[in-house]
Specification:
Blueprint (H helix, E strand, L loop, with lengths): L5 E4 L15 H14 L3 E5 L5 H13 L4 E7 L2 H11 L5 E8 L2 H8 L3 H18 L3 E6 L6 H13 L4 E6 L6 H14 L7 E6 L6 H10 L4 E4 L13 H10 L1 H4 L10 H12 L20 H9 L27 H10 L6 H17 L5 H11 L9 E11 L2 E11 L2 E8 L3 H13 L4 E7 L10 E9 L2 E9 L2 H25 L3
Parallel strand pairs: 1-2, 1-8, 2-3, 3-4, 4-5, 5-6, 6-7, 7-8
Antiparallel strand pairs: 9-10, 10-11, 12-13, 13-14
Helix pairs in contact: 1-2, 1-11, 2-3, 3-5, 5-6, 6-7, 7-8, 14-15, 16-17
The structure holds 3-methyl-2-oxobutanoic acid and zinc ion (ZN).
Protein backbone atom coordinates (compact mmCIF):
# COMPACT_ATOMS: atom_id res chain seq x y z
CA UNK A 1 0.00 0.00 0.00
CA UNK A 2 1.21 3.51 -0.79
CA UNK A 3 2.84 5.42 2.05
CA UNK A 4 1.60 8.73 0.65
CA UNK A 5 -1.53 10.29 2.11
CA UNK A 6 -3.32 12.60 -0.31
CA UNK A 7 -4.48 15.90 1.12
CA UNK A 8 -7.90 16.95 -0.17
CA UNK A 9 -8.52 20.53 0.88
CA UNK A 10 -12.16 21.55 1.22
CA UNK A 11 -11.65 25.03 2.72
CA UNK A 12 -13.39 26.56 -0.30
CA UNK A 13 -16.41 24.24 -0.04
CA UNK A 14 -17.07 22.78 3.42
CA UNK A 15 -14.89 25.49 5.02
CA UNK A 16 -16.95 28.14 3.33
CA UNK A 17 -20.05 26.62 4.94
CA UNK A 18 -18.90 28.02 8.31
CA UNK A 19 -21.37 30.68 9.39
CA UNK A 20 -20.06 34.06 8.21
CA UNK A 21 -17.14 32.62 6.22
CA UNK A 22 -18.43 33.01 2.69
CA UNK A 23 -15.89 34.25 0.18
CA UNK A 24 -16.32 35.94 -3.15
CA UNK A 25 -14.78 34.59 -6.35
CA UNK A 26 -11.63 36.72 -6.19
CA UNK A 27 -11.05 35.79 -2.57
CA UNK A 28 -11.41 32.10 -3.45
CA UNK A 29 -8.90 32.41 -6.25
CA UNK A 30 -6.35 34.00 -3.92
CA UNK A 31 -6.87 31.17 -1.41
CA UNK A 32 -6.70 28.51 -4.16
CA UNK A 33 -3.42 29.94 -5.45
CA UNK A 34 -1.98 29.67 -1.94
CA UNK A 35 -3.34 26.12 -1.52
CA UNK A 36 -1.49 25.13 -4.71
CA UNK A 37 1.69 26.62 -3.24
CA UNK A 38 1.01 24.69 -0.05
CA UNK A 39 1.11 21.53 -2.16
CA UNK A 40 -2.33 20.05 -1.48
CA UNK A 41 -3.26 17.26 -3.90
CA UNK A 42 -6.90 18.18 -4.46
CA UNK A 43 -8.80 21.46 -4.05
CA UNK A 44 -12.56 21.19 -3.65
CA UNK A 45 -13.27 24.57 -5.20
CA UNK A 46 -17.01 24.67 -4.59
CA UNK A 47 -20.41 23.20 -5.21
CA UNK A 48 -20.93 24.35 -8.79
CA UNK A 49 -24.72 24.17 -8.94
CA UNK A 50 -25.28 25.89 -5.60
CA UNK A 51 -24.84 29.47 -6.87
CA UNK A 52 -23.48 31.43 -9.85
CA UNK A 53 -20.59 32.51 -7.58
CA UNK A 54 -19.64 28.91 -6.77
CA UNK A 55 -19.90 27.94 -10.43
CA UNK A 56 -17.59 30.78 -11.41
CA UNK A 57 -15.13 29.96 -8.63
CA UNK A 58 -14.92 26.30 -9.75
CA UNK A 59 -14.57 27.35 -13.39
CA UNK A 60 -11.87 29.93 -12.82
CA UNK A 61 -9.90 27.91 -10.25
CA UNK A 62 -10.01 24.94 -12.66
CA UNK A 63 -8.54 27.07 -15.42
CA UNK A 64 -6.18 29.33 -13.51
CA UNK A 65 -4.66 27.24 -10.73
CA UNK A 66 -1.87 24.92 -11.73
CA UNK A 67 -0.86 21.80 -9.83
CA UNK A 68 -3.68 20.25 -7.79
CA UNK A 69 -6.69 18.37 -9.08
CA UNK A 70 -9.74 20.65 -8.97
CA UNK A 71 -12.97 19.18 -7.69
CA UNK A 72 -16.61 20.24 -7.68
CA UNK A 73 -19.22 18.80 -5.33
CA UNK A 74 -22.52 17.53 -6.74
CA UNK A 75 -25.56 15.93 -5.17
CA UNK A 76 -26.47 12.61 -6.76
CA UNK A 77 -28.64 14.38 -9.31
CA UNK A 78 -28.09 14.57 -13.06
CA UNK A 79 -28.31 18.38 -13.13
CA UNK A 80 -25.64 18.68 -10.43
CA UNK A 81 -23.23 16.34 -12.23
CA UNK A 82 -23.79 18.14 -15.55
CA UNK A 83 -23.25 21.52 -13.89
CA UNK A 84 -20.02 20.38 -12.21
CA UNK A 85 -18.77 19.21 -15.59
CA UNK A 86 -19.76 22.53 -17.25
CA UNK A 87 -17.70 24.35 -14.60
CA UNK A 88 -14.75 21.93 -14.77
CA UNK A 89 -14.46 21.22 -18.46
CA UNK A 90 -11.63 23.75 -19.01
CA UNK A 91 -9.55 22.26 -16.20
CA UNK A 92 -6.62 19.95 -16.96
CA UNK A 93 -7.24 17.80 -13.84
CA UNK A 94 -10.98 17.73 -13.06
CA UNK A 95 -12.68 15.62 -10.40
CA UNK A 96 -16.42 15.26 -9.87
CA UNK A 97 -17.42 14.45 -6.30
CA UNK A 98 -20.93 13.13 -5.84
CA UNK A 99 -22.72 12.10 -2.67
CA UNK A 100 -25.89 10.62 -1.26
CA UNK A 101 -26.68 9.49 2.27
CA UNK A 102 -26.55 5.84 3.27
CA UNK A 103 -27.76 6.05 6.87
CA UNK A 104 -31.35 5.04 7.54
CA UNK A 105 -31.90 8.19 9.56
CA UNK A 106 -31.03 10.39 6.56
CA UNK A 107 -32.71 8.19 3.97
CA UNK A 108 -35.97 8.02 5.91
CA UNK A 109 -36.27 11.62 7.15
CA UNK A 110 -34.38 13.69 4.63
CA UNK A 111 -34.08 11.88 1.31
CA UNK A 112 -37.31 9.89 1.67
CA UNK A 113 -35.76 7.03 -0.29
CA UNK A 114 -35.33 3.34 0.28
CA UNK A 115 -31.85 1.83 0.53
CA UNK A 116 -32.33 0.23 -2.90
CA UNK A 117 -33.28 3.56 -4.48
CA UNK A 118 -30.26 5.31 -2.95
CA UNK A 119 -27.90 2.57 -4.18
CA UNK A 120 -29.34 2.71 -7.69
CA UNK A 121 -29.05 6.50 -7.77
CA UNK A 122 -25.47 6.43 -6.50
CA UNK A 123 -24.46 3.99 -9.25
CA UNK A 124 -26.24 5.97 -11.98
CA UNK A 125 -24.64 9.24 -10.93
CA UNK A 126 -21.15 7.78 -10.68
CA UNK A 127 -21.62 6.37 -14.19
CA UNK A 128 -22.84 9.74 -15.41
CA UNK A 129 -19.83 11.49 -13.86
CA UNK A 130 -17.49 8.90 -15.41
CA UNK A 131 -19.00 9.82 -18.77
CA UNK A 132 -17.36 13.22 -18.28
CA UNK A 133 -14.18 12.62 -16.25
CA UNK A 134 -11.89 9.78 -15.24
CA UNK A 135 -11.53 10.98 -11.67
CA UNK A 136 -14.78 10.44 -9.74
CA UNK A 137 -15.23 10.52 -5.98
CA UNK A 138 -18.27 9.12 -4.23
CA UNK A 139 -19.30 9.87 -0.63
CA UNK A 140 -21.93 7.87 1.27
CA UNK A 141 -23.00 10.74 3.50
CA UNK A 142 -23.42 9.93 7.20
CA UNK A 143 -21.38 6.76 6.61
CA UNK A 144 -20.41 6.45 10.27
CA UNK A 145 -24.11 6.02 11.20
CA UNK A 146 -24.89 3.65 8.31
CA UNK A 147 -25.35 -0.08 8.60
CA UNK A 148 -22.00 -1.60 7.69
CA UNK A 149 -23.27 -4.38 5.42
CA UNK A 150 -25.27 -1.86 3.36
CA UNK A 151 -22.32 0.53 3.25
CA UNK A 152 -20.07 -2.23 1.87
CA UNK A 153 -22.69 -3.06 -0.77
CA UNK A 154 -22.92 0.59 -1.89
CA UNK A 155 -19.16 0.99 -2.02
CA UNK A 156 -18.70 -2.15 -4.09
CA UNK A 157 -21.38 -1.02 -6.53
CA UNK A 158 -20.01 2.53 -7.00
CA UNK A 159 -16.48 1.21 -7.50
CA UNK A 160 -17.84 -1.14 -10.18
CA UNK A 161 -19.56 1.90 -11.70
CA UNK A 162 -16.22 3.72 -11.92
CA UNK A 163 -15.62 5.61 -8.66
CA UNK A 164 -11.88 6.08 -8.22
CA UNK A 165 -12.08 7.45 -4.66
CA UNK A 166 -14.59 6.42 -1.99
CA UNK A 167 -14.84 8.97 0.77
CA UNK A 168 -16.18 7.92 4.17
CA UNK A 169 -17.72 10.91 5.95
CA UNK A 170 -18.35 11.22 9.65
CA UNK A 171 -20.86 13.88 8.69
CA UNK A 172 -22.11 14.72 12.17
CA UNK A 173 -18.86 14.17 14.08
CA UNK A 174 -20.31 11.20 15.98
CA UNK A 175 -17.59 8.59 15.52
CA UNK A 176 -14.98 7.56 18.07
CA UNK A 177 -11.42 7.06 16.86
CA UNK A 178 -11.01 3.37 17.44
CA UNK A 179 -14.39 2.48 15.99
CA UNK A 180 -13.87 4.77 13.01
CA UNK A 181 -10.52 3.09 12.38
CA UNK A 182 -12.28 -0.29 12.60
CA UNK A 183 -14.89 0.91 10.07
CA UNK A 184 -12.11 1.68 7.57
CA UNK A 185 -10.52 -1.72 8.23
CA UNK A 186 -13.96 -3.34 7.78
CA UNK A 187 -14.27 -1.63 4.39
CA UNK A 188 -10.84 -2.86 3.34
CA UNK A 189 -11.67 -6.41 4.43
CA UNK A 190 -15.24 -6.64 3.14
CA UNK A 191 -15.49 -4.65 -0.09
CA UNK A 192 -14.11 -7.08 -2.68
CA UNK A 193 -13.03 -4.49 -5.28
CA UNK A 194 -11.71 -1.91 -2.76
CA UNK A 195 -8.16 -2.07 -4.20
CA UNK A 196 -9.47 -0.29 -7.30
CA UNK A 197 -10.24 2.88 -5.32
CA UNK A 198 -8.54 5.17 -2.84
CA UNK A 199 -10.21 5.24 0.58
CA UNK A 200 -10.74 8.79 1.80
CA UNK A 201 -12.14 10.17 5.05
CA UNK A 202 -14.02 13.38 5.86
CA UNK A 203 -14.48 14.00 9.58
CA UNK A 204 -16.40 16.75 11.35
CA UNK A 205 -15.38 18.11 14.71
CA UNK A 206 -18.61 18.16 16.73
CA UNK A 207 -16.96 16.26 19.59
CA UNK A 208 -13.48 17.61 18.92
CA UNK A 209 -12.43 14.29 17.37
CA UNK A 210 -12.11 15.13 13.67
CA UNK A 211 -8.32 14.93 13.60
CA UNK A 212 -8.14 11.84 15.85
CA UNK A 213 -10.75 10.06 13.73
CA UNK A 214 -8.92 10.94 10.50
CA UNK A 215 -5.68 9.67 12.00
CA UNK A 216 -7.17 6.33 13.04
CA UNK A 217 -8.61 6.03 9.53
CA UNK A 218 -5.19 6.58 8.00
CA UNK A 219 -3.66 4.04 10.38
CA UNK A 220 -6.22 1.55 9.06
CA UNK A 221 -5.66 2.13 5.37
CA UNK A 222 -7.26 5.45 4.31
CA UNK A 223 -4.97 7.24 1.87
CA UNK A 224 -6.83 10.52 1.40
CA UNK A 225 -7.83 12.92 4.15
CA UNK A 226 -10.34 15.70 3.59
CA UNK A 227 -9.57 18.70 5.72
CA UNK A 228 -9.61 22.48 5.88
CA UNK A 229 -7.24 25.28 6.79
CA UNK A 230 -7.71 26.26 10.44
CA UNK A 231 -10.28 23.46 10.70
CA UNK A 232 -13.10 25.72 9.53
CA UNK A 233 -16.28 24.13 8.19
CA UNK A 234 -19.90 23.31 8.81
CA UNK A 235 -20.82 23.69 12.54
CA UNK A 236 -17.73 22.87 14.66
CA UNK A 237 -15.68 22.48 11.50
CA UNK A 238 -13.67 19.83 9.70
CA UNK A 239 -10.39 18.12 10.50
CA UNK A 240 -7.68 20.74 10.49
CA UNK A 241 -5.19 20.36 7.66
CA UNK A 242 -2.25 21.75 9.59
CA UNK A 243 -2.76 19.28 12.44
CA UNK A 244 -3.12 16.24 10.18
CA UNK A 245 -0.07 17.14 8.12
CA UNK A 246 2.13 17.94 11.12
CA UNK A 247 1.09 14.76 12.96
CA UNK A 248 2.14 12.70 9.93
CA UNK A 249 5.40 14.62 9.63
CA UNK A 250 6.30 14.76 13.32
CA UNK A 251 5.42 11.13 14.04
CA UNK A 252 6.74 9.64 10.82
CA UNK A 253 8.86 7.44 13.07
CA UNK A 254 5.68 5.60 14.10
CA UNK A 255 3.35 6.11 11.18
CA UNK A 256 5.74 5.89 8.23
CA UNK A 257 3.54 8.10 6.06
CA UNK A 258 4.12 11.23 3.97
CA UNK A 259 2.16 14.02 2.35
CA UNK A 260 3.22 16.36 -0.43
CA UNK A 261 2.48 19.46 1.66
CA UNK A 262 5.19 22.11 1.81
CA UNK A 263 4.86 22.59 5.53
CA UNK A 264 6.64 25.97 5.52
CA UNK A 265 3.55 27.32 3.73
CA UNK A 266 1.19 26.29 6.53
CA UNK A 267 1.34 29.49 8.55
CA UNK A 268 1.01 31.88 5.59
CA UNK A 269 -2.00 29.87 4.41
CA UNK A 270 -3.58 29.93 7.84
CA UNK A 271 -3.12 33.70 8.11
CA UNK A 272 -4.53 34.22 4.65
CA UNK A 273 -7.66 32.17 5.34
CA UNK A 274 -8.31 33.81 8.69
CA UNK A 275 -7.89 37.31 7.33
CA UNK A 276 -10.13 36.61 4.31
CA UNK A 277 -12.89 34.82 6.21
CA UNK A 278 -12.63 37.02 9.30
CA UNK A 279 -12.49 33.85 11.41
CA UNK A 280 -9.70 34.38 13.88
CA UNK A 281 -7.56 31.46 15.03
CA UNK A 282 -7.69 30.78 18.77
CA UNK A 283 -4.30 31.55 20.39
CA UNK A 284 -3.87 28.03 21.78
CA UNK A 285 -4.71 26.29 18.49
CA UNK A 286 -2.25 23.47 17.75
CA UNK A 287 0.44 24.20 15.17
CA UNK A 288 -0.65 27.68 14.06
CA UNK A 289 -2.08 29.48 17.14
CA UNK A 290 -0.21 32.53 18.44
CA UNK A 291 0.86 30.55 21.50
CA UNK A 292 1.79 27.33 19.70
CA UNK A 293 5.48 28.18 19.99
CA UNK A 294 5.33 30.68 22.87
CA UNK A 295 6.98 29.57 26.10
CA UNK A 296 5.92 31.28 29.32
CA UNK A 297 7.15 29.25 32.27
CA UNK A 298 10.68 29.83 33.55
CA UNK A 299 11.50 26.12 33.56
CA UNK A 300 10.43 25.76 29.94
CA UNK A 301 12.33 28.88 28.88
CA UNK A 302 15.44 27.63 30.63
CA UNK A 303 15.24 24.25 28.89
CA UNK A 304 14.55 25.83 25.52
CA UNK A 305 17.51 28.18 25.77
CA UNK A 306 19.75 25.20 26.50
CA UNK A 307 18.33 22.95 23.77
CA UNK A 308 15.26 23.61 21.63
CA UNK A 309 14.09 19.99 21.53
CA UNK A 310 13.52 20.02 25.30
CA UNK A 311 10.16 21.76 24.81
CA UNK A 312 9.61 22.00 21.05
CA UNK A 313 8.55 18.89 19.11
CA UNK A 314 8.42 20.87 15.85
CA UNK A 315 10.50 23.81 14.73
CA UNK A 316 8.38 26.94 14.20
CA UNK A 317 10.20 27.50 10.90
CA UNK A 318 8.96 24.12 9.68
CA UNK A 319 5.40 25.49 9.61
CA UNK A 320 6.47 28.89 8.27
CA UNK A 321 6.52 30.83 11.52
CA UNK A 322 9.60 32.98 11.14
CA UNK A 323 10.85 35.36 13.73
CA UNK A 324 11.15 37.97 11.03
CA UNK A 325 13.34 40.94 11.85
CA UNK A 326 12.41 42.97 8.79
CA UNK A 327 10.77 46.10 10.18
CA UNK A 328 8.45 47.77 7.73
CA UNK A 329 8.22 51.53 7.89
CA UNK A 330 8.24 54.60 5.70
CA UNK A 331 11.71 53.86 4.37
CA UNK A 332 10.83 50.35 3.25
CA UNK A 333 10.65 49.66 -0.43
CA UNK A 334 8.39 47.65 -2.64
CA UNK A 335 10.66 44.60 -2.40
CA UNK A 336 10.46 44.29 1.40
CA UNK A 337 6.73 44.94 1.21
CA UNK A 338 6.24 42.23 -1.39
CA UNK A 339 8.29 39.73 0.64
CA UNK A 340 6.23 40.40 3.77
CA UNK A 341 3.01 40.01 1.78
CA UNK A 342 4.34 36.70 0.50
CA UNK A 343 5.10 35.55 4.06
CA UNK A 344 1.51 36.39 4.95
CA UNK A 345 0.20 34.28 2.08
CA UNK A 346 -0.53 37.05 -0.43
CA UNK A 347 1.02 36.90 -3.88
CA UNK A 348 -0.67 39.79 -5.55
CA UNK A 349 -0.92 40.66 -9.21
CA UNK A 350 1.27 43.71 -10.08
CA UNK A 351 -1.65 46.18 -10.18
CA UNK A 352 -2.96 44.99 -6.79
CA UNK A 353 0.53 45.14 -5.35
CA UNK A 354 0.70 48.76 -6.53
CA UNK A 355 -2.60 49.68 -4.88
CA UNK A 356 -1.58 48.02 -1.62
CA UNK A 357 1.88 49.59 -1.72
CA UNK A 358 0.43 53.09 -2.13
CA UNK A 359 -1.81 52.52 0.93
CA UNK A 360 1.14 51.09 2.84
CA UNK A 361 3.23 54.19 2.12
CA UNK A 362 0.40 56.48 3.21
CA UNK A 363 0.11 54.51 6.44
CA UNK A 364 3.86 54.35 6.99
CA UNK A 365 3.89 58.16 6.84
CA UNK A 366 1.46 58.21 9.79
CA UNK A 367 3.03 55.38 11.84
CA UNK A 368 6.53 54.48 12.91
CA UNK A 369 6.22 50.77 12.20
CA UNK A 370 3.73 48.88 10.10
CA UNK A 371 2.78 45.51 11.58
CA UNK A 372 1.55 42.34 9.90
CA UNK A 373 -2.01 43.01 11.01
CA UNK A 374 -1.82 46.47 9.39
CA UNK A 375 -0.74 44.90 6.11
CA UNK A 376 -3.51 42.31 6.20
CA UNK A 377 -6.02 45.05 6.89
CA UNK A 378 -4.74 47.04 3.91
CA UNK A 379 -5.08 44.05 1.57
CA UNK A 380 -8.57 43.38 2.93
CA UNK A 381 -9.55 46.96 2.31
CA UNK A 382 -7.84 47.69 -0.98
CA UNK A 383 -7.58 44.45 -2.88
CA UNK A 384 -10.13 41.87 -1.83
CA UNK A 385 -13.19 43.85 -2.67
CA UNK A 386 -13.44 43.01 -6.33
CA UNK A 387 -16.68 41.24 -6.85
CA UNK A 388 -18.75 42.20 -3.91
CA UNK A 389 -20.75 45.08 -5.35
CA UNK A 390 -21.15 47.55 -2.52
CA UNK A 391 -24.65 48.96 -2.08
CA UNK A 392 -23.41 51.25 0.65
CA UNK A 393 -20.38 53.53 0.62
CA UNK A 394 -19.08 55.89 3.27
CA UNK A 395 -18.43 59.35 1.89
CA UNK A 396 -17.71 61.26 5.10
CA UNK A 397 -18.05 60.92 8.84
CA UNK A 398 -17.77 63.55 11.54
CA UNK A 399 -18.33 62.76 15.18
CA UNK A 400 -18.58 65.04 18.20
CA UNK A 401 -18.10 63.60 21.66
CA UNK A 402 -16.55 64.46 25.00
CA UNK A 403 -17.28 64.76 28.70
CA UNK A 404 -19.87 67.54 28.23
CA UNK A 405 -21.26 66.61 24.81
CA UNK A 406 -23.87 64.07 23.82
CA UNK A 407 -22.11 61.99 21.15
CA UNK A 408 -23.37 63.03 17.71
CA UNK A 409 -22.47 61.64 14.30
CA UNK A 410 -22.89 63.33 10.95
CA UNK A 411 -22.67 60.74 8.20
CA UNK A 412 -22.73 61.08 4.44
CA UNK A 413 -23.11 57.92 2.41
CA UNK A 414 -23.89 56.66 -1.05
CA UNK A 415 -26.81 54.21 -1.13
CA UNK A 416 -27.16 52.48 -4.52
CA UNK A 417 -25.25 55.37 -6.03
CA UNK A 418 -27.35 58.15 -4.44
CA UNK A 419 -25.77 60.44 -1.83
CA UNK A 420 -27.65 60.55 1.50
CA UNK A 421 -26.77 62.56 4.62
CA UNK A 422 -28.06 62.33 8.20
CA UNK A 423 -27.22 63.09 11.80
CA UNK A 424 -27.81 60.93 14.88
CA UNK A 425 -27.14 60.66 18.59
CA UNK A 426 -25.76 57.71 20.54
CA UNK A 427 -24.42 56.50 23.86
CA UNK A 428 -20.87 56.88 22.59
CA UNK A 429 -19.24 58.01 19.35
CA UNK A 430 -19.29 54.51 17.80
CA UNK A 431 -22.91 54.02 18.83
CA UNK A 432 -23.83 57.41 17.30
CA UNK A 433 -22.06 56.49 14.05
CA UNK A 434 -23.69 53.03 13.88
CA UNK A 435 -27.17 54.37 14.64
CA UNK A 436 -26.87 57.01 11.95
CA UNK A 437 -25.60 54.49 9.41
CA UNK A 438 -28.50 52.17 10.29
CA UNK A 439 -30.94 55.05 9.76
CA UNK A 440 -29.45 55.93 6.38
CA UNK A 441 -29.28 52.35 5.08
CA UNK A 442 -32.63 51.27 6.52
CA UNK A 443 -31.06 47.94 7.53
CA UNK A 444 -32.38 45.61 10.23
CA UNK A 445 -29.37 43.65 11.37
CA UNK A 446 -28.42 42.89 14.95
CA UNK A 447 -24.86 43.60 16.12
CA UNK A 448 -23.63 40.37 17.73
CA UNK A 449 -20.04 41.34 18.43
CA UNK A 450 -17.83 44.35 18.08
CA UNK A 451 -14.11 44.17 18.64
CA UNK A 452 -11.13 46.37 18.08
CA UNK A 453 -8.51 43.84 17.16
CA UNK A 454 -5.33 45.38 16.09
CA UNK A 455 -4.15 48.40 17.90
CA UNK A 456 -0.81 46.94 17.07
CA UNK A 457 1.74 49.42 18.27
CA UNK A 458 1.48 52.79 19.95
CA UNK A 459 -1.51 55.14 19.94
CA UNK A 460 -0.74 55.97 16.29
CA UNK A 461 -1.43 52.38 15.18
CA UNK A 462 -3.92 51.31 12.58
CA UNK A 463 -7.03 50.12 14.35
CA UNK A 464 -8.73 47.08 12.91
CA UNK A 465 -12.34 46.73 13.83
CA UNK A 466 -14.35 43.56 13.31
CA UNK A 467 -18.07 43.40 13.78
CA UNK A 468 -20.36 40.44 13.51
CA UNK A 469 -23.91 41.11 12.31
CA UNK A 470 -26.94 38.88 12.09
CA UNK A 471 -30.00 39.23 9.92
CA UNK A 472 -32.37 36.30 9.66
CA UNK A 473 -30.33 33.21 8.85
CA UNK A 474 -27.27 35.21 7.80
CA UNK A 475 -24.30 35.98 10.00
CA UNK A 476 -21.46 38.03 8.56
CA UNK A 477 -18.25 39.64 9.64
CA UNK A 478 -17.16 43.06 8.50
CA UNK A 479 -13.74 44.58 8.87
CA UNK A 480 -12.44 48.09 8.65
CA UNK A 481 -9.05 49.59 9.24
CA UNK A 482 -8.06 53.18 9.90
CA UNK A 483 -5.87 55.13 12.27
CA UNK A 484 -9.08 56.77 13.55
CA UNK A 485 -10.94 54.07 15.45
CA UNK A 486 -14.39 55.61 14.85
CA UNK A 487 -13.79 55.69 11.11
CA UNK A 488 -12.48 52.08 11.29
CA UNK A 489 -15.69 51.12 13.13
CA UNK A 490 -17.93 52.79 10.56
CA UNK A 491 -16.02 51.10 7.74
CA UNK A 492 -16.31 47.71 9.45
CA UNK A 493 -20.03 48.18 10.00
CA UNK A 494 -20.65 49.24 6.40
CA UNK A 495 -18.46 46.39 5.13
CA UNK A 496 -20.59 43.95 7.13
CA UNK A 497 -23.82 45.51 5.82
CA UNK A 498 -22.54 45.11 2.26
CA UNK A 499 -21.65 41.47 2.97
CA UNK A 500 -25.16 40.92 4.30
CA UNK A 501 -26.64 42.37 1.13
CA UNK A 502 -24.34 40.13 -0.90
CA UNK A 503 -25.28 37.02 1.10
CA UNK A 504 -28.98 37.75 0.77
CA UNK A 505 -28.54 38.12 -2.98
CA UNK A 506 -26.51 34.90 -3.24
CA UNK A 507 -29.14 33.08 -1.18
CA UNK A 508 -31.88 34.27 -3.51
CA UNK A 509 -29.89 32.89 -6.44
CA UNK A 510 -28.92 29.59 -4.78
CA UNK A 511 -30.78 26.49 -5.77
CA UNK A 512 -29.78 24.40 -2.76
O1 LIG B 1 -19.91 16.15 5.82
C1 LIG B 1 -20.23 15.55 4.78
O2 LIG B 1 -20.76 14.43 4.79
C2 LIG B 1 -19.95 16.21 3.52
C3 LIG B 1 -20.15 15.40 2.28
C4 LIG B 1 -20.76 16.20 1.18
C5 LIG B 1 -18.85 14.78 1.87
O3 LIG B 1 -19.51 17.34 3.50
ZN1 LIG C 1 -18.64 17.89 5.49
Amino acid sequence: MSDKVKIFDTTLRDGEQSPGASMNVEEKIIVARQLAKLGVDIIEAGFAISSPGDFEAVRRIGQEIEGPTICSLSRAKPEDIDCSWEALKGSPRPRIHTFISTSDIHLKHQFRMTREEALKRAVEMVERARGYVEDVEFSPMDASRSEEAYLYEVLEAVIDAGATTVNIPDTVGYALPERFGALIKGIKDNVPNIEKAVISVHCHNDLGLAVANSLFAVMNGARQVECTINGIGERAGNASLEEIVMILKTRKDLLGLDTSVVTEQIYPTSRLVSSITGMMVQPNKAVIGDNAFAHESGIHQDGLLKEKTTYEIMRPESVGITQSTLVLGKHSGRHAFRIRLHELGYDLAPEDLNKAFIRFKELADKKKEVFDEDIEAIVQDEVLRFEMPDRFKLLSLNVKSGTETQPTAEVEMEVDGTPVKDTGLGDGPVDAAFKTITKITGTKSVLLRYSVNAITGGTDALGEVTCRLEEGEHIVLGQGAHTDIIVASAKAYINALNRLEYKKKVKRERLV
